[in-house]
Queue: 4 jobs
Job 1
Amino acid sequence: MKKTAGIHHITAIVGHPQENVDFYAGILGLRMVKQTINFDDPGTYHLYFGNKDASPGTIITFFPWADSKQGKIGDGQVGTTSYVVPIGALPFWENRLEKFNIVFTKIEKFGETTLHFEDTHGLQLEIVEREDGEQNSWTIGEVTPDVAIKGFGGATLLSAQPDKTAQLLQDVMGLEKVSEADGFIRFRSYGDIGNVIDVKATSSSSGEMGVGTVHHIAWRAEDDQDQLDWKQHVEKSGYGVTPVKDRNYFNAIYFREHGEILFEIATDPPGFAIDEAHATMGEKLMLPEQYELYRERLQKSLFPIEVRNLD
């Protein structure tokens, strides 16, 4: 049976790009590891944030559309994206959220204390302590490695058909069902990060794509051959899968599961240092070869952005 290690990345739609950079780099302390464009809509940024090494399981990516319509979080989407921090770091994050006037709720889920809050544009986020996952050695402002976000804890999925989504996670993606409580079913993959998936056990109203919503969730494939094996495996399970698409930093295939959530399976290699040095990743706009001749025009059309130390 095939098994994914867990989440590769999560991609969301947000508003003004500088507000996005300020929140994820300046407040949450993630590294902006890549600034490029949406290959299908080159007048829009595609911004990537993660740990110092831009490791799979730490990467959140954004299509920032300033002044666009606000979306509605609902069935067919990732409802909440969860981040994991080292044991003992939660008080730091409580203080940090308060410092930046970010309202949060402290809740108990499956025996864990979780901080639940929204980003600048309405995305639902959580921070939870766990031992799993390597320490993130990136430092910005007051966010130091002993408290820094290590990567994804996981995600909560809102499904139009929760039973079918749960079956897919278990029987096709190879996650293990580990618990069920308070209206959620918890699954776990074998990886040490991005490995805990909660499915809301009941459906509600359909989500509407727009600012403040997740566009898709991507799962990890070890390499190109593993991805082709996944493609065949998912197709045999009754899902229509796209051809392989070259995203420069990984290859991708997509399918919409029966609960209407868009799934991607992305390769771990080649990674984000393929077109710029590891030490300077994210510092300048990187374009795929087919758009390089339009660089000057694109740079004029995109909002200027910078990573700012907000402390």
Job 2
Amino acid sequence: MYYRFPITRPRRLRSSRVIRNMVSETSLSPSNLVLPIFVKDEGSIEQINSMPGQYRYPIGDELIKAINDAVESGVRAFLLFGVTKSKDPLGSLAYDKNGPVPKALRLLKENFGDSIILMTDVCLCDYTEHGHCGVVEYRDPVQVTQTTSQPKYVVNNDATISIYAKIAVNYAEAGANVVAPSGMMDGQVKAIREALDNNGFTDVIIMSYSSKYASTFYGPFREAADSAPRFGDRRSYQMDPRNAYEALKEVSMDLEEGADIVMVKPAMPYLDVIRLVKQHYPEVPLAAYQVSGEYSMIKAAALNGWLNEKMAVIESLIAIKRAGANIIITYYAKEASRWINEVESIL
């Protein structure tokens, strides 16, 4: 006897927008998004050339307006980066109570209270005259010649993490809800957690840049923050782009040391790493950073009319969320918060 089996038709569940929204596997909300903000210690508001639509804000009314505009769009979390011309070998302005980030924190806490979450990047590259993320020690030039492979300098890991601890306490005192060590120094989370706890800041969250890759996609950020290394590169401390499973080791170490949230950076080129980390640590909040290069590529293509900016942004953020990120740090946070519902009516 001849039997006819019914045809499986996945298209039935794609037949209308209402059904597609009902059965969609991934949801994106403004509550998932964090907006990076550059704050400067002098001058007036300044557009960032390589990041159209992004600005460096002086501590004052322009910063308050920018935060308020983002809040009205639905954004509730902000990641602050300091920008300064006052640089020195140890990046001392990073742990100065009158540095740009502590001043911004106090201003925003005064104006917004607990209605927003204030996160702070903990690193030295924005503040050091050499542009590296830690304390640089120079080797004896007599012992290091061009015929050897030994570098002429080294970033001192242990000297650096003690400074990170001072920075974190400084930011916590000024009102930070979250501190985010990004320097990829071994033991940085432990040093920060101990310093915060010893100073009474047991409730301050640590969001660690656990898997931060040595990526070319940071280019526009380095202009924005004036943080490009003046010599060498950061491959001795940031992760090798060829490695994925090493991220699990980094995440494991940070969690053991007291991290509350872990991060993969950049996002789109490392979706496989986001997925890998989430599969191994499903219970841990996972952040992903859609970095400056990702932002600027979409923005440039949109300005040239090569793609639909709104659709490209939402699709890229959905991809990051689908890979496993709970939190997405993106320069598009304000626009995306407005676009999410608009795009859902089109998808």
Job 3
Amino acid sequence: MSSSIPSGATNGNTEKAPHVLIAGGGLAGLFLGNLLEKAGISYTIYERTAQIKPLGAIMCLSPNILPAFEQLGLYEELMSFSKISRLNTFYTDKLKLVGKAEATNSEQIGYDRILLARPPLYDMLFGKIPAHKIHLSKKLVSHEQDQMGVRVYFEDGTVAEGDILVGADGAHSGVRESLYKTLEKQGLLPKIDSANAKKGYISLVGTTDSLNPAEYPSMNYTEAENSFIIGDGDTPYTWVTFTVPDNKICWCVIVQLEEASAEEKHALTSAWETQDNQKALDKIRHFKTTYGTLGDLFDATPTERVSKVYFEDKLYQTWNHDRTVLIGDAAHKLLPSTGAGAVNALQDAVILANCLYDIQPHTFTNAKDALNEYKAQRFKAVAEQYPKSYMSARLQYGHTLWERILRYVIFNWLPNSVIGAQLVKDSAYRPQANFLPQAPKRGTIDVLPQKASRHIQKEEETRRANTAGL
């Protein structure tokens, strides 16, 4: 089949590494591209929009992924636009202290959790991708795959061919939709995968312009100031503020849909037009923050940096089939209460890159085995995050009586030693790229071992055999 986009497909049995098509130029796709660039694996990224425009909201990266940034030589640059996050403070809507929660223990763990606005991270990752390896305005319509390769059809009429297709195209993945449609016709799709994701919360998010440190003294703090303000029993709202570099504040207003009125649900779930945007923000301008009112922050935030985001949770069972594989939100949607969504997407990219590196020689069978191995290594690790993110969301954003009691117990009865022990346990899983020098050990905790590279083991065996034969 001819293609209007030059194909790098190897097709068939070859010692050459497969050519990888990555659908999605978001966080997961760009990170995978950076990893494949270092691994020497051929790839092309296809982004459906005319430009990569990340949400202007806050994100959190934990010690579970920072060693991989260090391997890629990106850690110092990452830290230049991030702030260390060691403490979360919770208030009532009257700014009465509810409690505080330590977010990290850097001496034992070796890394701090960090907070940052999304745009500079995307800019950094995008900037490391050679220009000819990323194509914009390429919306995937469908794809086909067989023993010889995979073909992707785009809305503009063009076609791309390769050996592996990676769906890194987010919660509303076109790759997943195309794959599941085919599997459903063949009777191979579990019923749970065709069910809609659960929408428990909806959020308005934004990042201010640079603010005057004289008016906002916390801008001068080296660590991020994180405030969670939980509305009283008459409102389903929780609002959160984080300070980030460049004297900016990221804000997030979360609504618990099960506690919202019919009017609030209708307003928040309607189309996200400019007038709806302003109407929703005007209704909550008077809410108090530690910096004044939310209205003060809204006024300092350009309209184009305000987004509406659904907080969904769903763990799909089908992550791969033949030459197609899903990563990030395309495979699993976690509530963002623990920051696990972004971290797990990046961890997916690391493990998938390792498995792609091990496809030697490139055959249809070896390609399928590699994608099966990726899921085998990642599914359990992701599944374990679900109850944690659910409970954390209840703790941070919940307004039911049970959730208010939970907050009181956690902040007033649970010993800090228990919380610290859980932080250490949660930080032990930190996968790295097998094909790059390992990041230096930080902290005192024992890191969970990861599966060794078959490719590297084979090369080492060959080297030892050649040395012995001399």
Job 4
Amino acid sequence: MSHNPPQNEQRILIKGAYLVTQDAELGNFVGDILVTDGRISAVGQDLADDRARIVDGTGKAVLPGFIDTHRHNWQGALRNLGPAWTYQEYRSQVQIGLGQYFDPEDVHIGNLAADLMSLDSGVTTVRDESHISNSPEHSDAAIAAHWESGIRAVFDHGWPSTEAEQWQFGSARTHPVDIRRIRNEVLSDDSARVTLNAMLRGPELSTPEVSGKDIQLARELDLRISMHVGLGEWGAEQQAIRQLEETGLLASDMTFIHCCTSTDEELRMLAARGATASVAGALEVFMPGLGQPATNRLLAAGVRPSLSVDTETIVSGDMFGVMRATLAYQQLVLAGAAGPMDRVPDLPTFDAADLLSFATIEGARAAGIDDRTGSLTPGKEADLIMICLDHANLLPATDVAASIVAGGHAGNVDLVLVAGVVLKEDGALKGGDTVFAEAAASRDRLFRAASLPLPT
């Protein structure tokens, strides 16, 4: 089944913007970008098109839309509940405590709220790690929200949040079989705006035997795989990446999320097999119990990571905060105040330009969609954002990448396109007018079901 809309015939020509292309051959320069039929048709200087709508890019930067490679979208209506929670408190309060009470409509509004917040802040692609597969109807509702919002989404089918403790940390249950239906009947088109991946628990959250069966299933269905690994002391003990390497299952179709307590040797194994990684820098800094961001250690192993939000119940759902927190932790590494795994000499470092790369083209590679997005390369789909460098908080934008990373926020995002469709313009998001009320109603219903006091 394909939900792709008719080809977008709008022609848009952005003139005179600073282009952060993420294309090594094009580089960064002041110029123009032409969008036709939903794709980037030309990037250069002095472009002209009599049929195109002209957008003045003076004083603005255009770059590929941010790509979030790991967000639990279903929690979008529960945002900002516990910024001081530990990992165990989050699991107890949200996944175990509230997850069992979600009905399909709660999943739909949670996903929609997360998608709209993402788009407003310049995230044009989200890899939705959906461990709310309580029923086929729950998964269908999550997918429907992605079509409705207009975002590009990689739906990572996971496990239920009913009997949540039976599905993690040594679980003997194999992956829910409904993933076959979704692959065959719902998300069979890998060129569509919404596609399918498999969110597997791996040997860290299940058993080696279950992990092997789950991986076999995902590869039989020709799906990329994501896994949470290196989760606190348990991750250090289990060494999931090593287990996968020793059983011959580690491969380039895998994205490993967190890797906080994965060993340096494991990260080198990951690199050797061409696998990718997702760092949730803000969440890992805010939430005790996971470990610290592995960004610098991944770079030392030869892996350029992608970036992700993880859960909006703990941290803000925008990529600006993720980039800043990831950079802040690196500065602790340099100051000698980092966690024990980072107290090694000569760790490689990264800068603002690297962070923009992690948030765009590296995200596309991790999600397996770098052939169609992640850079301003002619021929790719027009997933792009325009940021106002002439806003008071970014002036005088001496270094464009540094200004965006150090000072940027959603209010600076003036224009958002996904596959050439305008979803935010002149700083205003299109649609979503009823989402606030629907999200509040969903939250209230869930709180009542869980016998929690309603917010006043």
